[in-house]
Amino acid sequence: MGNFKQRWNIKSNWQLVVIVIVFALTGTTSSILSKPILTFIGIAKEDVSVWVYYPSYILLILPVYQILLVSFGFVFGQFTFFWEFEKKMLRSLKLGFIANWLDKNRKRNS
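and the corresponding structure tokens:
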């Protein structure tokens, strides 16, 4: 537990508990929400090949997860932590241009 606190610059055990809860809620919620979204856009498990359905499902989970992570972080009072985590994740996925654009627009609107 000390490694996480040091690596993520977490000040208290309570903050660590809240962060773990947010990660758990985000993962579960993104997987639950992605199925009806796929059905809404016309990709139902019964109607398409598994070779289409599961890659689409996995590709959809990624943006849903990103949005929910920051949203749940805000609700649980950890927006700054998850905002920085989100930018780091985007950069590691070679999508740093999105993080830079979001930062630029956030600073301009502040």
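(Above: one complete record from the training split.) Residues 13-40 form the longest helix (28 residues).
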